[in-house]
Amino acid sequence: MLRSETVGGGVGKNEGVGVRLTDEQRLEWLRLIRSENVGPRTFRTLLNHFGGAGAALAVLPDLARRGGSERPGKIYSVAEAVRVIEEARRRGAVFVALGEPDYPARLRMIDDPPPLIAVRGQIEALRQPMVAIVGSRNASAAGVKFSGQIARELGEAGFVTVSGLARGIDAAAHKASTASGTIAVLAGGHQHIYPPEHGGLLESILDNGAAISEMPISWEPRGRDFPRRNRLISGLALGVVIVEAARRSGSLITARMALEQGREVFAVPGSPLDPRAEGTNGLLKQGATLVTEVADVINVLRPILGQPAEIPVIEEDESEPPLSEPGDAERHRIITLLGPTPVEIDDLIQLSGASPSVVRTVLLELEIAGRLERQAGGRVALKL
Questions:
Q1: Coil, strand or helix: which one is 95?
Q2: Which residues pair with 185 in a beta bridge?
Q3: Co-location of 145 and 104 in the same domain
């Protein structure tokens, strides 16, 4: 079970949430999540098993060695972490840890919540009910107008809007709700705003809203960072409104992630002759809630507001067994079964004849060594 240092204090759904890290713990959390080959899920496993970020940092080189790495992965130094925290402060950003009172409750519910988010602006905006609005960068005039109208009316109804600061629909939603509160989720760090021309828009957002990022302060966003950002957009919100989306677009990725996270998905219908409406019309065929006015959104979300955010129990149970030391033969057998084709972890357990805890330990070793790739649906594969 998670210790008192870690997420939610290691107790039930809403008990113990609100434990604040000490400055030393926050520094260790930053070092661990920024160390090579440590992502949100691996971070949680390490804290669960070793009891704290400091202890986990100490064993990373040995885990990498056992996973077959010829060299230990880069471990974020104390000096680097201190420098980053100081740079964040200069930019008006603070690091909020998973389980602390200011960490958004619904974001905690997703499968891979970021252990730390860097927040600028009005942190209390993260405690308000949120609705995400996303859509085409190459938006139509009608799409821009409608997204602004929906965002403004949601703000008047007490909702904070969430979007990705992109051109088109995102920007229109942010601009229309700066007075009532809006959250910009960044694909890069706070030092590199994308697109650059939205720097002024971001500053206006901070008066009543906030900007958040899980990426390093100086990180310049790359293509693969945007889907990662999209899971935070949907994770923060009660529901996601898709205004315009082509058949293949980041907005549809956000809609898929929203469904996986148990969020409501809304879609605005468009002309079948407009390729920017192809994705939204497709969502409607698949059962998304049709939106032609703000009441269509509010009527669905109002009942949910009366229900507290159900924080999942994060503990070592049958679905996440504790780590166990594998023997050399067991480790070899498990690694032999892995390859570039993704495999279900349950199949790996069955075929290897090893216990779930042993398989989980070997996978962690491979991941820290940089040899394992985790994919959707709990599947794993060896990196080529």
A1: strand
A2: 212
A3: no
DSSP string, 220-283: PP-TTHHHHHHHHHHHHSSEEEE----SS-HHHHHHHHHHHTT-EEEE----TT-GGGHHHHHH
Q: What residue type is assigned to position 198 of the chain?
A: H
Range of the domain at 357: 328-379
Residue 33: helix, strand or coil by DSSP?
A: helix
* Single pTM value for the model: 0.87
Instruction: Tell me if residue 149 falls in helix, strand or coil.
Output: helix
Q: What is the DSSP letter of 378?
A: G
Q: What is the pLDDT of residues 200-244, one digit of tens each?
A: 999 999 999 999 999 999 999 999 999 999 999 999 999 999 999
Give the count of domains, the chain: 3
- Please list the residues that pair with 121 across neighbouring strands: 210
Q: What CATH number did the domain enclosing 239 receive?
A: 3.40.50.450
The per-residue pLDDT for range 76-89, each reduced to its tens digit, is 999 999 999 999 99
